[in-house]
Design goal:
The structure holds two protein chains of two kinds.
Chain A lengths: L2 E14 L2 E14 L3 E5 L6 H8 L7 E6 L2 E2 L5 H11 E4 L11 H12 L3 H14 L15 H13 L5 E5 L7 H16 L3 E6 L2 H4 L4 E6 L2 E7 L2 E3 L5 E3 L5
Parallel strand pairs in A: 3-8, 3-9, 6-7, 7-8
Antiparallel strand pairs in A: 1-2, 1-4, 4-5, 9-10, 11-12
Helix pairs in contact in A: 3-4, 3-5, 4-5, 5-6
Chain B lengths: L2 H14 L1 H38 L4 E6 L19 H10 L3 E16 L2 E10 L3 H5 L3 E4 L4 H5 L4 E4 L3 H5 L8 E4 L2 E9 L14 E4 H9 L6 E6 L5 H15 L10 E5 H44 L1 H10 L3 H38 L8 H28 L2 H6 L2
Helix pairs in contact in B: 1-11, 2-9, 2-11, 2-12, 3-8, 9-11, 9-12, 11-12
Classes of the chains: A alpha/beta, B alpha+beta.
Chain lengths: 244, 404
């Protein structure tokens, strides 16, 4: 197994007036390909900043971040955009789908910026939507879909460019408990198919679905534990692959 | 590339706010209409002036008393009496490039026939006048050199006059001009309007008769001259200047006490007025397009703010700065071009309808005006779209995603 994400002594500081806020304060973290990691912590712990770093949405103040062999630290804004496009599939808490745009077109979007030809875009987008169980909702706009369905569209969008990493930021934060279970089961399936998933959450119920939990506090990694038992929604317990 | 998609997104965004987009375009619509309109006014005026001047005859020169010189000291109203009928005779006799010359003395008089009366321009001319002005007779004939010499009381009516006076068979009838009886010897064919008054409403009599009865002076108001060919106008003008200077006994240091106008001078004088008018309208159109551009920039800035979240999503998913700025630039360009198109359709269509159907002066919308309007609109769209587009492209994805 090779390292997909390598953070070496990563720091990110914000200046707010005279105050310097250390959102990340020397974080070193390695995530292997194929892992299902939950990043947890209370608000203000630095988990969101960490997620921005992992997602190449923001650059560290110091330290090194290597994603799939690319050193991100020195890249320009356009190079970061390309890296996000090629390597990362984002799933957001509030779905972040384009309004007034059909499910199919939303899923086509990452391929649009990747320069995929129109016909292939359409075919792959349809495939991805079928994979998340929305093959019959291709032409619906976000306001015509339920929360769970919208999140499925955004998962399809995250998958469609075959990224090396699926980065989910509180993906169930806006969903009811029943739908939450559905979506988490979908993540588990994707993990089982070999996808690397990093899930940012503050809910233990959600984090428990991952195979490894990294807890943040005050901008540092507080704990990093492997989860031995996978708590399925139906209560069925399986032995974790990487052991306890 | 993703041009078609970018176009589609821009078009959708414009359509999503139909009213707002239309109001934004309005500035450009009005600007383009003004550009087309001003050029149409210019073209139309030029066509009309050219037509009128040409109807005077293409080889006609007019001698007026008084100098047009701006430099020297004006000779005052007294100079209006420096031209005489003798000058006209000398010009014809001495100048080889001159074909015909006729003095013109005119006044307005009361004309009576039977129980009808009207006020008409009475033009005193000689027998060469119809050749100069290309006047064809509908019936009867123009007066002869003898009739001019003897100052006979004969009259040639303009085409509309018999109708005005209620005459059925005008030839041989007697009309009273300022209570003096005249015999009608001819009626001219219609000549159409020539500027401010129509020769169709005038009555021609020998200039000698006019001087005797009505002006009481030996001076004439102008001399109209036709050159032998339109190509020799300048040569004819030079000859006439020499002849008149000798006839008026002018010292070489004196300036001319007459001025000779040919069509070119009249055309350029009128052309200058048209040019000023057109420049004024062009200025107004320029300002309108500028204001339209500011309107576009304003609404594009609103649009960038409204769509901050969308920009964030697109950037997170992999849109580069170029893609974002292209999208907003294209939207601004589409606004200005749609405005230009509507302005062209409304303004150009309106001008053509007025020009072709109402004024009947032909095609007034020029290709150059259309090209100018479109090019200017594109420029406005780009210039005023760049700032909002840059603003959109410069948004940081994390800030944009967090924007509510």
């Amino acid at each position: 197994m090779r390292a997909l994400i390598e953070m070496r002594n990563l720091a990110r500081t914000y200046v707010l007036g005279d105050e310097v806020i250390r959102a990340l304060d020397g974080v070193s973290l390695t995530i292997q390909q194929g892992e299902f990691v939950a990043i947890m912590g209370p608000s203000g712990s630095g988990k969101s900043t960490a997620m921005n770093m992992i997602g190449c949405l923001d650059l560290p103040t110091s330290g090194q971040y290597i994603l799939d062999g690319y050193d991100v630290s020195g890249l320009s804004e356009d190079q970061l955009a390309e890296l996000r496009n090629q390597k990362i599939g984002f799933v957001f808490q509030n779905f972040n789908l384009l309004p007034k745009t059909t499910a199919l077109e939303n899923v086509e979007l990452p391929m649009l910026y990747a320069g995929v030809p129109a016909r292939e875009r359409r075919r792959r987008a349809m495939e991805a939507l079928e994979r998340v169980g929305l093959g019959n909702r291709l032409g619906n706009r976000p306001n015509e879909l339920s929360g769970g369905q919208q999140q499925r569209v955004s998962i399809a969008r995250a998958l469609v460019n075959n990224p090396v990493l699926i980065l989910a930021d509180e993906p169930t934060g806006a969903l009811d408990s029943h739908t939450t279970e559905d979506i988490l089961r979908l993540f588990e399936e994707l993990h089982a198919q070999g996808n690397t998933i990093v899930l940012v959450t503050h809910e233990d119920e959600v984090g428990r679905h991952a195979k490894r939990i990294v807890r943040f506090r005050d901008g540092r990694v507080e704990s990093d534990t492997a989860v031995g038992v996978d708590h399925r929604a139906d209560g069925e317990a399986l032995t974790g692959g990487d052991g306890a | 590339m993703i041009w078609t998609e970018t176009l589609r997104v821009a078009w959708r965004s414009i359509r999503a706010n139909k009213m707002r987009s239309f109001l934004t375009m309005l500035g450009i619509i009005i600007g383009v209409m003004a550009v087309i309109g001003s050029s149409a006014v210019g073209t139309g005026a030029k066509l009309e002036i050219t037509k009128q001047v040409e109807s005077l005859g293409s080889n006609v020169l007019t001698v007026m008393p008084g100098s047009t010189s701006f430099g020297g000291i004006g000779r005052g109203v007294g100079s209006a009496t420096t031209l005489t009928a003798t000058d006209a005779k000398l010009i014809v006799q001495n100048d080889p490039e001159v074909a015909y010359a006729s003095p013109v003395v005119s006044s307005n008089q009361q004309v009576v026939y039977g129980s009808n009366n009207t006020s008409a321009a009475i033009e005193g001319t000689n027998e060469q006048y119809p050749a100069i002005r290309d006047i064809q007779m509908a019936e009867g004939q123009y007066f002869t050199a003898t009739e001019v010499k003897d100052a006979m009381h004969v009259a040639v009516l303009g085409a509309n006059v018999p109708n005005t006076l209620g005459m059925n068979a005008p030839l041989g009838q007697t009309i009273y001009i300022n209570a003096v009886p005249f015999t009608v010897i001819g009626v001219a064919q219609t000549q159409g309007s020539q500027g401010f008054q129509s020769p169709d409403d005038a009555i021609a009599i020998p200039y000698t008769t006019e001087q005797d009865l009505f002006t009481g002076s030996t001076s004439v108001q102008q001399i109209v001259v036709s050159a032998k060919s339109a190509n020799e106008m300048n040569e004819a003008q030079r000859e006439m200047e020499d002849t008149l200077r000798v006839a008026h006994q002018l010292h070489p240091s004196d300036s001319d006490d007459f001025s000779i106008m040919n069509q070119a001078t009249i055309l350029s004088a009128l052309g200058n007025i048209t040019a000023i008018l057109t420049a004024l309208l062009d200025g107004i159109s320029g300002i309108s397009l500028l204001v339209g551009g500011i309107g576009i920039m304003n609404i594009m800035l609103v649009s960038v703010t409204e769509r901050t979240r969308e920009i964030g999503i697109r950037k997170a998913i992999g849109a580069k700065r170029g893609s974002i700025s292209t999208q907003f630039l294209l939207e601004s360009l589409m606004l200005s071009l749609s405005g230009a198109f509507l302005g062209l359709v409304i303004g150009g269509g309106g001008a053509e309808v007025i020009g072709q159907l109402v004024l009947k002066i032909g095609n007034v919308v020029s290709v150059s005006a259309v090209v100018l309007a479109v090019v200017f609109s594109i420029l406005v769209g780009i210039v005023f779209g760049v700032y909002p587009a840059r603003k959109a492209a410069n948004l940081k994805p994390i800030d944009a995603l967090r924007f509510e």
